[in-house]
## 1
Amino acid sequence: MERAMAIDLHAAAGILAAHRLRPGAFPGLPEGLRPADLAEARRLQDAAHDILSDRFGPRIGWKIGCTTPVMQRFLGIPEPCEGGLFQANVQQSPGRFPAAAHHRIGVECEIAVRLSCDLPPGEHGRDALAAAVEAVLPAIEVVDDRYADFAGLGAPTLLADDFFQVGCVLGAPVAGWRGLDLAALSGRMLIDGAEAGRGHGRDVLGHPLNALAWLAGTLARRGRSLKAGEIVLLGSLVQTQWPAPGAHVAIEIEALGRVEMEA
């Protein structure tokens, strides 16, 4: 039977935010508070962001998940999903996200961008997006499998909870990136010195800036737009890895550099 009423966004957001602050094996939202679809999930995400910003500071960017075939197969979700990136959870390399402070910490190898100007709401081509990118950065996205069974939650609840997001560790910005073929760049992840995965920029929707275009269009449908200074993580080049406590994690992306953290 189709649900007649929208969920109580404040109540559902309070549960998600409380779980984020005390991560554990989250069983999911009560049935009457689960978002029915991705549109309702995004309204719930906005409400959760309002609560989380009191603890983590303002949202200063976005992460995009499920932009590569390897991650879509891994999560069983065939389309990208976005999540918020908060000021307190963005670190510079070398970073540290203690595994003991999370339920099951994971790491991903990402190409990130920092925007130089506001973009008007709407669809944007790759050239327009490239003109708005101030710098490209190598990044480790840090995630947390904070769920009792993520596959059983469904995409709407995962989207509302920022799709596993914890934070990120950023490398040095590369301002002179326009001479690079971002799609051709190779990247790899190392855990305690051993290679744990390898991929290319083209694995991200054919070109990393295609992911940025997807986000710009999705935000426009939410009545939002990309802003100057925001950081956007465009998607992992390799499957998520789950390092042991104390492990040393590094990513290396051709022509962009190396990023390191301790789990």
## 2
Amino acid sequence: MGAVAGIAAVDVGGFAYAGGWLRPGALTPPRFTDRFEQVYGRHEGFRRNHAKGLSAVGTFASTGAGAAVCRAGVFRPGSVPVIGRFSLSGGLPDQPDMPTTVRGLGLLFQGPGGEQWRTAMINIPVFPDSTPQGFYDRLLASKPLPETGKPDPAKMAAFLDRHPETVAAMKVIKGASPSAGFADSTFYGLNAFRFTNAAGATVPVRWAAVPQEAAAAPAAQAGKDYLFDDLIHAIAQRPLSWRLLLTIGEPSDPTHDATQPWPSPRRTIEAGTITVTGVQTEAPGNARDVNFDPLVLPDGITASDDPLLAARSAVYARSFTRRAEEPKRPSEVDVSRVLR
């Protein structure tokens, strides 16, 4: 139960009614956004989930191999600029860094001709919920009680009893121990998409960003922001890189359910290298104001039948609209403070 509660805010935004698979009126983007505020409080100017974060810039150098399955310009040989954001799940912009808190990496690939590809990844191999309603219900079940700081055991047990898919996903997640920091984390796209190449052939794809950084020694956990501080120090010394791996699904692999891993092994393509060359305190003009909407896709990539995708897009938009209209407070993660 504790592990489930620890990833209650997994993903990069939230999920809600979008598209008609839920009973009309049962769940809407405003209601879902309200639930984040109910659980974490209202923190004006910040994202409702993954509120604590750090902006980044870099490049994506394509090997050209991805063009075998996708005609998007970003997969042609060459390099394109990237805007990124490292984050922790949860709606508290000043939460203390913890080794078990889910870490996020959002990326905006600036492809040729103004084409964009946006993705929001996290460092767990599957998602705990298969539907927007499941995530919505788990979020409330995971809300800490004031007197204990932990979820109500009865509510969490009742939720898990109704959601065996979450129980199964948690077993997979528990089997993948988190790395020491951001630099050596593997980030997963989780949801399936459909890639189409220049010849018109379409295949299901999931992707992951796999670190080239060697596994680090466990961090000392000195300080409230130690995960971000370590990342800032590392990038001040050298760029950090991740290999972008595309996993090609078979016809029998589920594309509608992010709780289910695809069987191993599956064919993979090393599409290129994501290199982060710098990080920035969140401010106007950088990733602070980017909505990492997973349905901002280039020609050659389309959404699968996963119901979470349209839902994520809908709630990301609602969260973005709210914070855009609110006054801003300084980010907890301050690059200049760390590098003094």
## 3
Amino acid sequence: MKLTIERAALLNALGHVQSAVERRNTIPILSNILLEADAGTLALTATDLDLAINERVEASIVTAGGTTVPAHMIYDIVRKLPEGAQIELAYSSESGRLTLRAGRSEFTLACLPQDDFPLMTSGDLPYSFKLSVAELCRLIDKTRFAISTEETRYYLNGIYLHAAESAGVPMLRAVATDGHRLARVETPLPEGAAGMPGIIVPRKTVAEIRKLIDGSEDHVRVELSDGKIRFTFDNAVLTSKLIDGTFPEYERVIPSGNDKVMEVDGKVFAKAVDRVSTISTERSRAVKLAVQGEKLTLSATSPDAGTATEEISVHYSSDPLEVGFNSRYLLDIAAQIEGENAQFIFADASSPTLVRDGTEESALYVLMPMRV
């Protein structure tokens, strides 16, 4: 294999695929990226056996062929080369090494056989539809903060994507929860998604596809089955296994009888929570909300540090209420409110609170209170 490629093109592709490679691997081949040169393109593939990323870039191919090279090593080398450099890659099957040249720099890297690289097969993916990059970003960004990191509840370690109905309209719905908060966002059901199974997209896959599509302006082709999902866009393909588990019946935790509505400027509220929570203890980060009439008082107490209070204006016409929340959870939800008007819909101090964005009806959040 021998080829020449621009540094910027190679660096961009390496940056995309190498993030799928775990830093610590017990299987040596999984630390490597597969390079395949043929017909004017260089294909790069990385996998951790649960997730595979493939990207193609234009290159001047002298001799077709392939090999595997240490992922993070080659990425760091290319990253440190000067901008605008032309990179020559040459692999010798006799020595089993890849030579990388750019200007006066030359590196020789030990390779592992191409045949040892595990290729992830996607199998039959019967459901296929397109989403705009903006729509997919919205579904991810407004839910992923609520993905659980608790490995024992593995079925919560991802975003639940499924077809649902909202006021009789078919929707594609994304849901994430960690038991303390829940985020639910939906978009009109794309053509081809009808009848799709409910799937749980793993946390790592969510993070990788979000990074890959950042800055892209095209649509994303989504193909899926019960066990796998594939995202295709531009010159990249991400294939991933899905979480094999049953997502809980989340509709049961979304309160329907809450009747105390507080309307507040989302950004003013978030800044006030952030300031007051500075003094609260690190473990619980508890903040108390006391609302009465047109005034909301936020307060936090720490046995070691002292106390903090702040008052902000709100619209509220129900009975006075005091309720406590984890400030980090509050801030995570407040960060999703794009408009000025955030709605907090309470029942009482011990029941789940509903949070809505006044300018976006398709987004809904649930937050469990805590004792303060």
